[in-house]
Amino acid sequence: MIWFVYQPDKLNSSLHSSLDDTILDIHNFNNAIEAIKHAKPDLIYGSATWDLMDYSFTIASKFLNIPKLAEFYSLKPTPRSQTTLVKLYTSRFFENSTPTDAIQTKKQFMRRGRFYVYKFLFLLKTMKAAKMNVLKVIENFFLIIHRNLKDYKPIFDSHFACTFHWLESEKLIEPLVNAGFEPSNLVVKGSPMFDKVFQRIHDFKPIKKNENKIRVLLITSSLFEHGFWTKEQRDNLIREIVKNISKHKGEIELTVKIHPSSEILSDYQSLINPIDSSIQIYQKEDILDFLESTDVVLSFISGNASAMIYALIARKPIVICNFYDLQDDLFLKNGLALECTKSSEIISTIHKVISLNPATEEKIEEYVKEFLYKSDGKAAERISDIIMRLVERNKKITE
């Protein structure tokens, strides 16, 4: 495996490649073609989107005649208005840090915006190295801006198509074909992201409760970090949930699991510890370890969060704390969770979902079939077969 890493700063020299893995740093290359020539891969894996890095390597793969495999997922992002997007991108551009900064004190004026410009120049240099004419470069520039301001609508665009695409579910075939993708380059295989939970769920064992308390797992979502919410909205919601559950510590035990990369642990510690320092907050740990010993899962969004899909597959009762009237939540629309619209009703809703979980076995299976293809836990195996076939086919063509 050859990993191409792009961060604002050059990678620490202490990071070394192993016998099986090589790490390449964007700062060592002028463009994607140069990086590919250096790495000499048999196949490139990425996405068929207008993301600056993905598109750079799509252009380079076609220019060098190296197959690129991309994926398409069933779940759509929460829609946002063009006005909201303009405000979001403007504020992000002037941010002094990025969500992936390992050291939170490392700040720089317009750090996020500077790095976006850096990546855009990388794309322009890739276009130039691919001998793309000036008019096409200009067209691509406006196309990328247009797609970003449309907030992924249409979510598919064949301008950014790769050699081959695996799909998470069958429902993706028709919209992709309508968007101009070649049917022969589309294959449904499911998502390897959920293989582990499908395999492990059968081994879940009942764990003895601590003093017969209801074990509640709060799974957060990076809605603030991705510009959907303000910091005040996120902070108020967390405080309200924690305050109300802390009043019932005798009957409910709360654990908090935040996003492993997009959220900042210290943010949640500063929010929760002043209210109840006994509440454990985790970030890097395996979500499945918590689900196995959980009675009820709380969150404030469902369908776009992989951890919430894990919870559903694990057959855990789910409560969506919809304090800001978010529309079109996937679990709520499909009767897979209970909705709590007021912080004062959290405790009663937790008791209700335990006694009357709306997510029946039939509804869960329908959801899996529609969005995840199969529940056999073998999506990665199927996709690996595709990779081997693509590599073998390309070797025959180039021989």
Summarize this entry quickly.
This protein is of the alpha/beta class. It has helices at residues 32-39, 52-63, 82-93, 111-129, 134-149, 173-178, 195-200, 231-246, 265-272, 287-291, 306-313, 330-333, 346-355, 361-371, 379-398; strands at 2-5, 22-25, 44-47, 68-72, 164-167, 186-188, 214-219, 252-257, 280-282, 296-299, 318-321, 338-340.
Question: How would you describe what is shown here?
Answer:
The chain folds into two domains: 2-191 and 378-398, no CATH class; 197-371, 3-Layer(aba) Sandwich (Rossmann fold). It has 399 residues and is α/β, with parallel strands linked by helices. The two termini are 23 Å apart. It is built from 15 helices and twelve strands. It is globular and about 70 Å long. Strand 8, helix 9 and strand 9 form a beta-alpha-beta unit. It is 40% helix and 13% strand. The strands form three sheets. It has a six-stranded parallel sheet, sandwiched between helices. Strands 3-4-5-6 form a four-stranded parallel sheet, covered by helices on one side.
The tally of domains stands at 2
**Tally of individual helices:** 15
Give the biggest sheet. Answer: 6 strands, parallel
Task: Give the class from helix and strand content and strand pairing.
Answer: alpha/beta
User: Element order, helices and strands?
Assistant: EEHEHEHHHEHEHEHEHEHEHEHEHHH
Strand content: 5-15%
Shape: globular
Mean pLDDT: 87
User: Into which percent range does the helicity of residues fall?
Assistant: 40-55%
Distance between the termini: 23 Å
Please list the strands of the largest sheet in the order they lie side by side: 9-8-7-10-11-12
What is the strand tally?
12
Rg from C-alpha positions? Answer: 23 Å
- Uncertain stretches of 5 or more adjacent residues: none
